[in-house]
Amino acid sequence: MKAALVIMAAGMGSRYGGSKQVDGIGPDGEILMEYSIYDAIRAGFTKVVFIIKPEMRELVETLCGRRVAGMTAADGSPVEVCYAYQDFSSVPAFYSIPAERTKPFGTGHAVLCARSCVSEPFIVINADDYYGVDAFRVIYEELGRLKAEGEATMVGYRLDKTVSEHGSVTRGVCHVTDGKLDRVVETFKLTVFPDGTIRDVDKNPEGDVYAPDTPVSMNFWGFTPWIFTKLEEYFNAFLHALPAGELKKECLLPSMVGELIEKGELRVSVLHSDAKWFGMTYHEDKDAVAAALKALHDAGVYPPTLHG
Known about the structure:
Elements: E1 4-8, H1 32-43, E2 47-52, H2 57-69, E3 80-85, H3 107-113, E4 122-126, E5 129-130, H4 133-143, E6 151-158, E7 169-177, E8 180-192, E9 198-200, E10 208-210, E11 215-223, H5 227-241, H6 253-263, E12 267-273, E13 278-279, H7 286-298
Parallel strand pairs: 1-2, 1-4, 2-3, 6-12
Antiparallel strand pairs: 4-11, 5-13, 6-11, 7-8, 7-11, 8-9, 9-10
């Protein structure tokens, strides 16, 4: 089955304090998305789409794009590489962008920017997250079972495997019934307390306690191309509803998924992963991530270098 890996890499990384998407952190200077690409290709994916800012093109090509274009997919075909730009040029003409706005329009807009590159079932991931080998195998198989319209899938992770000891994190808390997603609630300040409990301190300093095994979304979604029509409709409605002069509000992919579920237009299967997710929300996370990647190389999960 032909399938695409779509990588959202245009984010600013404001909390991290730099361009974490292109920060070499593996034993041979690998960047985090190289691991996702490696895992996706050995799972069966045949195309890689980078969603980037235009000024990142040469850097991403140099770091991994050209090398990926020389790889061979599991079916023996060359891996196809495509670059999609998330910038204001793709915003519909009916919306006047405030001159002071610099912030991108979010993950929903990011995926919509990849529309011209994708005509097959696809998954969407963050560039700055490590998702685990088995997650790509499981979601690739699930993509092959999706109907052309009205169905999607996602990989859910245990909350306790996705938090940071260096500060609060935002996670999409998932409500699941019989293996299907009911809704995703964006929860903005999930914090690990000294006693090990995980609490949401957004509106209450004491925090509402969350169970360690609460499933959360790490933006690991699986779709068919049908979703682009719905994304366009959702993004246009989002822009129409923006107050004049709004500079920061984003069109979020989980919010669109939740709205479609509520309308009965989309069914989303939830695939569970007990893998230890890791990423670089904060700059202080870097050392721990580097150590975890080295351990995976040492254990033989990855070859000594991904650059060979």
